[in-house]
Amino acid sequence: MRRPLRTALLASLLLAAAVPVAAQTSGPAPTPAVQQEILALRERAWRTFFANDQAGFKEVVPAELVAIGWGGGGWADRATTLARMQENAARGQRIETLEFPQNLFQQYGDAVILYTQYRIVLKSAAGALSETRGRGTEFFVKRDGRWIHTGWHLDAEAP
What is the domain range of residue 50? Predict the structure, then answer.
């Protein structure tokens, strides 16, 4: 194998390794760099939610948020979601494990749709663990040069 070809092949493999193995695309795909940015933003949104980090959450989730959680109920805006964050914190729930075993991206201009599977284990103040697995569709928009997390629709698998 010629050296430039081998170098290019190695670079391709290293770039592919930067994207989680389960990350896939169907249709117009964002670049690996955009995928990494979206995955980091999504992780931050979930972690700030369960940590009741209201300031951090507001940095990644805009005022026009539309959220449908896995527990059913109505659609939530950002104010409702911030109140739910406080309720979770009052119950003492914290993330023990957060995983996204499968991700599929589509990009349309400055909008990315992320189809995902998730697994989250929450620990109560008393130390009890509860696991939820499900699927989600999450929406991201590039505004003023940065990505924001504008909405999601989650479901949960039956126990």
Answer: 3-156
